[in-house]
Amino acid sequence: MHVAFGILGFAAVLAATVLLEQKEATFSGLFYRPALLLLCAGPLFISLISHKVDELGTSARTLWKAVRFSAVRSRAILQDEVSRFAAEVRRGRPVEALAVAEDARHDLVRQLAPLVVKQYSPEDIERTAATASTVLASAMKRSEDVLTSLARVAPAVGLVGTTLGLITLLRDLRNFEHLGPSMALALLCTLYGLVLANGIYQPLARLVHDVRALFGGEAAESAGRAEVALG
Questions:
Q1: Contact (CB, 8 A) for 59 and 50
Q2: Which of 71, 93, 136, 165 can bridge 185 by disulfide, Cβ–Cβ 3.0-4.6 Å?
């Protein structure tokens, strides 16, 4: 279903771009509505062909988390929550320790801390930490894949817009008043595609990749601190 919706959506964007370009009598500078429409909506519908709607939604939420992520703050939260949890465990207060785990803001603490209370072995805790890290990293990997595909698609959609602009330019050679908007569509689509790919999508994909790489280290740290609490 998402494949058909993506194809039909991209076709609708192309048609809307052509119709809007015909209505534009002039253009002012770098902001041209037909080119913006094509480059903002076109790559998203193309991505919808290869990714389901829920995957795109998950990728958007994961991207938002990655943008807000701070390695220093995350490690500080991890250290504080594990320290409070370990203190309750050493005092022999499992109910309070579980309450600390349930209220924890760090995902790994919420998943690993109850295992300590249930007296899992250090090896089991370490394996669970690795599994939890893999699950978290896989969501980041999907978001990275979506952004990487958008970075590849955006310049291609820009070339589509350039071709459409040149076609309308050749069609309206006798109408000198319309040559400016047609040329604007041809040039600005390429510009928008390059800016989106190299200035937005690729840096965001790199950001998600760097955050994903940190999860392995935090999982190992969480498992190590949990083992200390267990000891």
A1: no
A2: 165
Count of CA atoms in the C-beta half-sphere (13 A) of 83 = 6
Confidence of residue 67 (pLDDT cuts 50, 70, 90): confident
Question: Mapped to the 3 state alphabet, what secondary structure does 59-127 carry?
Answer: HHHHHHHHHHCCHHHHHHHHHHHHHHHHHHHHCCCHHHHHHHHHCCCCHHHHHHHHHHHCCCCHHHHHH
d(CA 128, CA 3): 36
Question: pLDDT digit string (tens) for 113-122?
Answer: 787 777 777 7
Place of tokens 């039909």: 8
Pairwise CA distance, residues 156 & 86, whole Å: 54
* Contacts with 51 (C-beta within 8 Å, 6 or more apart), sequence order: 2, 59, 146, 149
Provide the whole-model pTM.
Answer: 0.75
CB 91 within 8 A of CB 41: no
3 state SS for 150-187: HHHHHHHHHHHHHHHHHHHHHHCCCCHHHHHHHHHHHH
Q: Which residues contact 50 (CB under 8 A, 6 or more apart)?
A: 6, 149
Predicted confidence (pLDDT) per residue in 179-204, tens digit? 777 788 888 999 999 999 999 999 99
